[in-house]
Specification:
binds ligand MTE
Length: about 325
């Protein structure tokens, strides 16, 4: 007869704590003793600050192996420059939000998958990352404001998350949503912006091999200012499509309206593919500034990724593909 002897540290499966509950418990242990001595409001602030400092249990997966398929025509932007020049309106409208964004707790972090899927589900970020094989990719990034960077992202293809989500045949788009918590993110108190930040892709775009979910950059887990713990990277589109700090993937039939489109549809559209010949209503898109170098370069159609994605837009010539 085969008898299993449990060692001291082993617990039955049914007693194991799901990732998000384990984190709440740890946060209580980290912040609990000091928090109890404080007033309720201060205690909560203390708890949030302690959560923001929790270690990343997937840190040992970095640096991941680089996928040599994705090459650059320019040097990678220095990490220090990239880390201090960001768009993340949840933390303010300037480029200097790196410090403010450190207030965002990224553990526990639950990702919701819902809408037209076989089975809606919620999954903790570390369980999700461990289900995927992560790799490093060098991508260009072209902001609609006519500046650009080159980044070493780490993560996994969005197509893998779609396989995991198992959308129904009737789903046509994936809609992604950023966290919403105006107490943590002061920008979300600016009521004239259409919070939360939302972006969408067609399922054909999302399944393209370039569409990438970044969980890391520069060989380590993603920094908060870049949209930790997971953000989109779609390098053939203007940077505003690359939504940060995603909490929800919904599979839908109707085309989702993105944050910038909802704010100013005359300037920003759903497709937002990079095209140097179609100016923004207020400035030219013909060239871009490589941040950190002062250099200006001509912008390329689809940001140089036409071989991968041009085919996605055949038959859509009457759509507003370039805004
Ligand atoms: N995602 C959220 N949630 N909030 C934002 O303000 N800004 C977008 C995009 N994703 C934004 C966002 C814009 S305009 C750009 S150019 C990129 O993030 C900037 O990414 P980076 O700061 O890592 O360069």
């Amino acid at each position: 007869m085969h008898i299993i002897h449990r060692r001291g540290w082993e617990i039955p499966e049914r007693q194991a704590t799901p990732e998000h509950l384990a984190f709440s418990r740890r946060a209580f242990l980290v912040g609990g003793a000091s928090a109890m001595a404080l007033a309720p409001c201060a205690a909560n602030a203390q708890r949030v600050a302690d959560l923001a400092k929790l270690p990343d249990p997937t840190a040992n997966l970095y640096p991941a192996k680089r996928n040599p398929k994705f090459t650059l025509d320019r040097p990678i932007t220095a990490e220090k420059i990239n880390d201090n020049y960001n768009n993340f309106y949840e933390f303010g409208t300037s480029k200097y939000i790196a410090e403010a964004s450190q207030a965002l707790p990224i553990r526990p972090w639950t990702v919701k998958i819902d809408g037209m899927v076989e089975k809606p589900q919620e999954i903790g970020i570390d369980d999700l990352i461990r289900k995927m094989t992560i790799e490093e990719r060098l991508y260009r990034h072209r902001c609609v404001e006519a500046w650009s960077m080159a980044i070493a992202w780490t993560g996994f293809p969005l197509a893998k998350l779609i396989d995991f989500a198992r959308p129904l045949g009737s789903a046509k788009f994936v809609k992604m949503t950023t966290f919403m918590d105006a107490k943590l993110a002061p920008g979300q108190n600016m009521s004239w912006f259409p919070w939360p930040y939302v972006e969408g892709l067609t399922l054909a775009e999302a399944g393209n091999e370039l569409a990438f979910i970044a969980t890391g950059c520069y060989g380590h887990p993603l920094d908060k200012q870049h949209g930790a713990p997971l953000r989109l990277a779609v390098p053939w589109k203007y940077g505003f499509k690359s939504i940060k700090s995603i909490v929800r993937f919904s599979f839908v039939e109707q085309r989702p309206k993105g944050y910038w489109e909802a704010l100013q549809s005359s300037e920003y559209g759903f497709w937002a593919n990079v095209n140097p010949t179609v100016p923004h209503p207020r400035w030219s898109q013909a060239s871009e500034e490589l941040i950190g170098t002062g250099e200006r370069r001509p912008t390329l159609i689809f940001n140089g990724y036409g071989d991968y994605v041009a085919g996605l837009y055949k038959g859509l010539e009457n759509e507003r593909l370039w805004a």
